[in-house]
């Protein structure tokens, strides 16, 4: 029997909407503070956890070695990295709060069942900045569910929240459907942690235009923005731009939904990337991959048919973590072009011009900025610029893969939501649904998990205190 059948509407102190990382951090924190907590998760149990199932790591400030993290990564360097990818479009106060709080989060995560491992080799270069989950995001999610249930948190799966009634500056009712039945709950406090709207393709198309029809959704198909739309329609303050999102270039063979991390391509720094006309359109070597990989989704989205093509040669094949799909192979550039649907003569000309612009490659270093650059060509390639001249040649098709959208709920340092009239006394938000407060554009590897963990814990603490 579902908890919704077993208990009266006012049984719970805190209702958490969404069962991913942010929601689970809120649920655990609230339960440890003595609150009776229910988690309302739209997905079926095997698909619980939202986009957190697909994550790999957590970006963490530390003043010295911490768990699996080496050396130090202080607040100012962390903030500088964030400002670089966002172009300054961030609430610095909330950003610093997330950064400073991340140091205490890592031992908290370990104390609640999460296990870490050293970073993998390859193009990630994150041993100093990011702690990797042993077993990936699915293991993290499972650990948190075990912890939450051990604390008495009740979880409802396939429980879709359809409406939050906002009345007189507070949420007075939560409407839920489960198993064809409708329920109304009256918890004392509510935490919204139900992600962005990226899985609602109609909404995505309204924001982006027809190009969005060619996008792939890397994460869960259950983040459709139902609760977000409901609250915005009632005057809850929003933050962020609906066209901004965490979008990366992924293997064009990925499924429409839920392809996850394994469809990401990490080969761009060692490649040239061309559009359908076999023309380069951006500097493939602009920065180390964790700082710049998230710009490529938008770059590909701006190309004809929203498609790009990675071209590498044999000497670069082992320098990056492979996609779940093998690359397309050609003994010659013409053969590769034919298999990839590219004009062979244009591809040959583009590669020849690029190769001619490459200079001394003796300083080539695959895991750090090496300054091995082109000269006299636009766009330049400012690092890792080696001629593509060693057969066989390999290619991948790229498409825009959206992870989560940045239009969300505006919050303060207590994770509390508001209207134009002031704070909503019993409503908090955490995770992707409020990340636009900090991520105005761009993305920094592992930072979504930082935001979710920090603000999930804050929201859980605040909600439990209010309920008491």
From TrEMBL:
Domain FAD-dependent oxidoreductase 2 FAD-binding: residue ranges: 13-440
Keywords carried by this UniProt record: FAD, Flavoprotein, Oxidoreductase
Entry coiled-coil feature ranges: none
Ranges annotated as spanning the membrane: none
SUPFAM superfamilies listed in its UniProt record: FAD/NAD(P)-binding domain (SSF51905), Succinate dehydrogenase/fumarate reductase flavoprotein, catalytic domain (SSF56425)
Cofactor: FAD
Keyword Nucleotide-binding: no
Pfam families per UniProt: FAD_binding_2 (PF00890)
Domain of life, per lineage: Bacteria
Cited NCBIfam families: CobZ_N-term (TIGR02485), PRK08274.1 (NF006130)
Name listed for the protein in its UniProt record: FAD-dependent tricarballylate dehydrogenase TcuA
Organism for this UniProt entry: Paralimibaculum aggregatum
Gene: tcuA
